[in-house]
Amino acid sequence: MKKVFYFSISANPWQRSALLDSAIEKAKNEDNEVSFYQVYKSEDSSVDLPFASYLDYKLARYQDNRMRSALAERGVSLDDFDLLAPNASRIPNEKALEIGYEETIVKTRDSKPCRTHCAELIYHYGQTHQLVYEAAIRFLSLHRPDLVYIFNGRFYREKAIWRAAEDLGITVNFIERFSPAWVDRYFEFENAVHSIKYRCEIMMEFWKNYRATHGENLALSISDSWFANRALGVGQSFTKDQSESFSRDIGNKKLITFFHSSEDELFSTDLGSNTWNDQIAFLRELYNELSKMDVFHLLIRVHPNLRHKSSREIQRWNSFQKELNQPNVTFVMHDSSVRTYDILRESDFVITFGSTIGVEASFAGKPSLLVSRAFHESLGVVLPIGNLVDLISILNDGVSQSILLKMKDSTRLYGLFHAIGGKSFQNLEHKTDKAQDPSFYFEKYKVGSMKVLSVIRRFEGALKKSRFSRLELDCSCIDGV
Fold this sequence. Notes:
Elements: E1 2-8, H1 13-27, E2 32-38, H2 50-73, E3 76-80, H3 94-108, H4 119-143, E4 147-151, H5 156-167, E5 171-176, E6 185-189, H6 196-214, H7 216-232, E7 254-259, H8 263-268, H9 279-290, E8 296-301, H10 311-323, E9 329-332, H11 340-346, E10 349-352, H12 357-363, E11 368-370, E12 383-384, H13 388-397, H14 401-420, E13 423-424, E14 429-430, E15 440-442, E16 445-447, H15 451-473
Parallel strand pairs: 1-2, 1-4, 2-3, 4-5, 7-8, 7-10, 8-9, 10-11, 11-12
Antiparallel strand pairs: 5-6, 6-13, 14-15, 15-16
């Protein structure tokens, strides 16, 4: 008998539902003994939402208690898991503090939170990570499962269970989506969710098998439709407020467009550059080289998602826009209504830091240059560039039509997997189309939030953001200090 443990740390309906669906599916094999452990302790840092979070977890406990017997009939035992180990060390070690800093980046939505003014927050997350790690060590040592499932593994509490299992030699799998648009699908990762090599292998293998089974024409049709729908706003929401057409007024110059990515997300998913510290550092160097030539115009499209980041993060890009206020540079800021896909169509070269639009650029036949890591970097869909000399050389010489065609052909396997890959929910029924707050049903039992809780979260979140923004604006430290 194989003992399989699922740990659900969040009250988030999608995360709980995906883990539950996988657990029920796993229990269909009579050789598996499946245990599902749900945490009911909310997060309580200064930037979390204590009241809304408390209510979310109370609702999760109520829903779980209602379906406990039905799950047992399906072979899944549902129990509580206490995150905090008794008599555990209260002083986080260096490893825990570094994970605490990583979590601070996630929670503050700031790529370089001030270590001085965020010291209390970093310490809190580091301490909690260590307490959960020690609790998991004790629990897993006592019960010795053969396999552990967690969600994602990117966040500080899940990461603690991951570390504990690995230290005990227990295999860890992960439940996540490949794309935020996967509301009713998930993927079971047998390697780390953010492993670039592993993700590329998954997409290549899926393309190979689907084409062999269903034929290349159908595979191409599905993939091409996915790219077309992306440009129409299907599967992504960042273009929904964009209605203004883009006017290219640069004479005979070549338009080089840099599509900005969320810096905090690059850091937390290990998709930063091996050459440049961040995107602004890269753009400074690029501009210094381009300014020596009068044949290029640089357009910097700041991602609309920046509006949801920290005040410090927004201020960095506002300040950089003022710094680079030059005739041969155009900024399209995060709050601009200029259509992103109009810009893409008018560009002569596209440069990205890991963004999916780099793949879309190749599909559109544009020279797409990647200057950081990316989940698609090994698929042949973009040209990875490791230094400025090579980048300037390509900008001067261009990219041959044969290479552009090969890159476009390769984008199809990316599009196919994102369109239909992964595993659809088999045991829970998806009831809403809201990616951030969906509802699922297991038999007659709901796994989801309530409208009143959504209102409370928004209200409490606005209060928290206002308070934290004031603290940020009081901080005059150099980034990252």
